[in-house]
């Protein structure tokens, strides 16, 4: 992938939370919603899910918005996060990237969402907003 390739992204509705639990904790029932990512390492159980489901006592960073890179993307395609991360870093927007088999996902702080979308669009990417049954332009 080169810097000349425009990526199509879709902004999904709702706010997410990035949660940290003990490495021996079971996956909780509240880890639910349209998007859930669960990663278990020797040091932690990390869960990304809808913020409204996360109990207040759980260690979490709340207020993240989710952008989906339209895919599926070949697993050997390189430079996706670089193409997205570079303009966002320049705009001073934090990211929390997640890769799945079919595509890549990018969480950005809700407080920086407009700045993030502007930076991505200035870099030549196209962002649409998903609401219900069909995507629409942001």
Please tag this protein with its features.
138 residues; alpha+beta; VC0802-like; 9-stranded mixed β-sheet; 2 helices; 9 strands; 36% strand
Protein described:
By secondary structure, this protein is an alpha+beta fold. It has a single domain, classed as VC0802-like (2-Layer Sandwich). It is 15% helix and 36% strand. The chain is built from two helices and nine strands; from the N terminus they run E-E-E-E-E-H-E-E-H-E-E. It has helices spanning 80-90, 113-122, and strands at 8-11, 16-21, 37-40, 45-50, 60-69, 96-99, 104-109, 126-131, 134-137. Strands 1, 2, 3, 4, 5, 6, 7, 8 and 9 form a nine-stranded mixed sheet that branches. A hairpin with a 4-residue loop joins strand 3 and strand 4. Helix 1 (80-90) crosses helix 2 (113-122). The longest helix is centred in the middle third of the chain and has 11 residues, at 80-90. Mean pLDDT is 92; it is low at 133-138.
- Fourth-tier CATH superfamily name: VC0802-like
| C-alpha geometry | globular
- What is the helix tally? 2
What series of H and E elements makes up the topology? Answer: EEEEEHEEHEE
Helix content: 10-25%
């Amino acid at each position: 992938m080169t810097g000349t390739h425009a990526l199509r992204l879709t902004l999904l509705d709702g706010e997410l939370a990035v949660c940290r639990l003990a490495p021996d904790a079971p996956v909780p029932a509240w880890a639910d919603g349209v998007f859930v990512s669960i990663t278990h390492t020797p040091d932690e159980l990390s869960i990304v899910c809808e913020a409204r489901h996360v109990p207040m006592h759980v260690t979490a960073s709340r207020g993240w918005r989710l952008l989906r890179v339209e895919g599926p993307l070949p697993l050997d395609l390189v430079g996706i996060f670089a193409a997205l991360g570079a303009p966002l870093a320049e705009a001073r927007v934090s990211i929390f990237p997640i890769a799945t088999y079919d595509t890549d996902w990018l969480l950005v702080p809700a407080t920086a969402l407009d700045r993030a979308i502007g930076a991505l669009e200035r870099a030549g990417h196209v962002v649409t907003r998903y609401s219900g049954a069909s995507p629409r332009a942001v």
